[in-house]
């Protein structure tokens, strides 16, 4: 079952973020705390949305955090999937596919032009899974990120 997250899911979302960071070999990178998700997911101006995957007994086993983007080339909004995570014990049970199916349903229902995300180049299981759904890599694009001191320096120039 896939459902929209509620404020009560914040501790679970943060736990999943920590588990995902550990899987991606960067547990020290997580700086978020529950108050950040309370504010940014459930405050007066939500910055993102979260879907929760549950197993048959209602236990949360995964999540997808996403937000809208805009393509000037398509002239349409889209969905950017920031995080997709399913607990190791629940993998292979269709939860990841169900989360992506729900995101695709939302995109189609709203007339969005695409759903996109990034995946680490070493994550062969995820890459294989995404390709099995018909997703295509965008190898000609390179992601750049401005953060920390460089962001502060440029922002205060």
UniProtKB/TrEMBL annotation:
Full protein name: GNAT family N-acetyltransferase
Signal peptide residues on this chain, from the entry's feature table: none
Family: Belongs to the acetyltransferase family.
Entry-linked SUPFAM superfamilies: Acyl-CoA N-acyltransferases (Nat) (SSF55729)
N-acetyltransferase domain sequence ranges: 1-157
Origin: domain of life: Bacteria
Keywords: Acyltransferase, Transferase
One GO MF term attached to the UniProt entry: N-acetyltransferase activity
InterPro entries per UniProt: Acyl_CoA_acyltransferase, Diverse_Substrate_AcTransf, GNAT_dom
Keyword Cell division among record annotations: no
Organism name: Yinghuangia soli
